[in-house]
Every structure is written in C-alpha cells, then in structure tokens.
Specification:
This protein is of the alpha/beta class. The chain contains 14 helices and 14 strands.
Amino acid sequence: MCAVQISESAYSAMQAWQGDKPVAALMGEFSAGKSTLLNFILGEDVAQINVKATHMPPIWITYAQTPFSIGLRHDGTEEEIDLSRGDINFRKTYLAIRVGRSLPALLKCDIIDAPGISDPNLPKDALRFLSRYMDFAIWCTAANQAWRQTERAAFKKLAKSTRDNSILVVTRVDKLRKDTDRAKVMKRITRDAGKLFSQIVALQTPKAAALSADDRTNDPDGAWVTTGGYDFETAFCEAISAIDVSDRTPAAQANASAQTPTTSQPTKTTKSASAPKISDGNSPIEPSPDRVAVEPVTTSLSNQKTTKETKMASTDITKLNDISGFIGACLVDTETGLMMASEGGDNFDLEAAGAANTEVVKAKMAAMKMLGIDEAIDDILITLGSQFHLIRPLADTPSVFLYTALDKKSANLGMARVQVKKVENTLEL
C-alpha cells in the first residue's frame, strides 16, 4: 500500500464538509456489520450502492433536502457521480464521496461509512487522514471474532480526541447461542478494549432494527433493551453531546483570527470537545426536535474557586424540567429515604415516591451483592402503562439517587438518560 498525494484543495474541501455538526465514522473489519448498523441508524439503505465494497472510498453522508452524490478527486475537484454504476471502481478516481439525503437522523450528525480496515487496496495512512475530520468512531466488531489485534492497532492510529468519544459495538451477538458464550466474549472484550472506548455495546442489529417506533418507545416486552438498541441509542446520544463544534463556524474562526497575536511562532488549531448535539429514540435513531442544548459554562477568573474549602454544596435539579415528558423529580438519600431536593410533581407525591424507590435501590444492590456482581448501577428503569420512572444513583455518592418520572407518550428515554446524567454532573454534595 502506497501513500496517495492529496492536494491542499482536497484538504480544504474535506474541512468544508465538516460544517457545524459532529461527524461520526462507522469503522471496523470487513463483514463486521457496518452496513447493517448504518441502515439501522438512518432507517433506510441510504446509499443504495451496487458497487463492490473494495471499489468504494469513504462515503460521507450528510443531510440535504435535495439528494445528491458527488465525488472528491485528490486534486480537490468535486463532481456529480452516479452511484448506481456498478461497473466503476470509484476508489481509483475519488478520495471520498459525499452523499446528501433528507433523513432526520442526519440533522445533527454527519456519518462517514469507512472502508474495512483490512482492505488490501486501502491507501497507506487512510485512517489517519480520516481522523482529521471525524469526531468519534462507531467501531463494529463481530462477536464471533471480536476485537483482534489488527483492530486494536488500527484504532490506536486515530487521534486521541477521536478515540476518547468512540463507541465499540459488538455485533452479531445473537449468533452466539449460549448466554455463557456471550458473557465470556463480552468479558474478554471489556478487559481488552474497555479503556480505549467511552462505551461498549452488545447489539443485535437486525432485531433492534425490526422493532417499530411504538415498540421502541413503550418496549412492552423489553425487546428494545434486550437487543441492545436502548444502550446503543443512549451511547450514540452521549457521544454526539460530548462534541463541541463551535470552533468550526465562520464567525468563530474569524473571531479566533482577530484575537490571535502576531508572532513568529506558527499557531496550531485544535478541536475542542464538550457540548451538545443529539438524536431521538423513535424510528429510526433521529434527532429530537425539542432536544436541550447544554451551554458551555464560562466563569471569570475573579470568581473561580477550585479548592475544597471553597466548594459549595449544590442540589439544584431544576434542569430536569427541560426533559421532554417531565412529570417530576427528586434527589433522595437512601440511608434515610428523605428528599434532598425536588422539582415538579404537581399531581405526583414525590416524597412518597422517593421513599418507596429507596427500597427498590436497596433491593437491587442486595441482589447484585448476592450474585457477586461488583459493579456500580448506572440507572434503573421502571416501565409503567403511561410512565417511565428512571432511578440514577450518583456515581460519586451511590447512597444518593436521582428519581425522575416521565410521561411515556412524549419522553425520549435515550435523551432523558443523557440529560439526567448531565444534571448529576452538576451536583455537589
């Protein structure tokens, strides 16, 4: 594999493609389930390509009201192309292909469909080149041959800022017939890859994709959870929410240029990471139109206090009001069953709910101890006929939990889970 000469014009074109949205890249070995996962995320076969996978460069998929397909040559030239032409080796001609489709899932996140990492015709350093323009990877690894050394080596070539937000999706877990086999595979993957990814999700993609919007929202049989769809949706939401693209806007770039002092030293431009973007949990994984943006916190130097002596306790949970379908919430001490803070719940007895759910948390902790499970509880979901009840013990203070009641019809579980976690991060006890 030899390196390919890429012009400055091509680099500029790719940078312009980034726009003001986070960019995720689907990556992994051949036949690891990337295409199936892509169709699951978008809700349809967006590319509908009749070309061999080894004849395709990376495909950058973005939102557009009018569908288009363009090819980017190595010299920076862009031209319309016909992806239905199965007789063309697009990789020989184009550095990348950009596809525009009118799909809600693309409103707040672009997706790059990357070639398989073991492709013998993949140009040298192609993954490192892609890493310049992606914010995180959704790395697919098939359960029956999961997380090889070749995958680890390829993944570690990506920029650290990209790796830190990436998700490892273990596909085809349904091909492992025994629960014991699945447990062994997940234990090994967690051991070998757990420190490299922000989250690891086991996903039965075809089964999750087959669930209707109502099945995903109400989940009467627990299928959305057991297929891994719920965990993937939540992980995807959290990854998008962690990306800050404010430095990509023309206004931000102009402002940065105006404030940059003239020196003899070259200045580096780096991507920051930590702001909001998101997707809805219905059909398919789509951005929520009423999502809540988390604004970056700015503090003047004169007001900054960083020592333990100056840290003040904070039990403000008012931001939970912003969750779609919010009914009420409270912060509860499991040792006493008493509320430390409450919000909403006009026609809902939050004090009684907090005390009652203290027993739920204690029972779950006792069950885990009996089973020898030495792990922290992320959250407990209770599904009723018309409501969701979400219980989240605080990571820093497990004896205290956030209890949130939501209306089933208007709540988005994936987004709610993300927002509850963000409120947790603001608490100081």
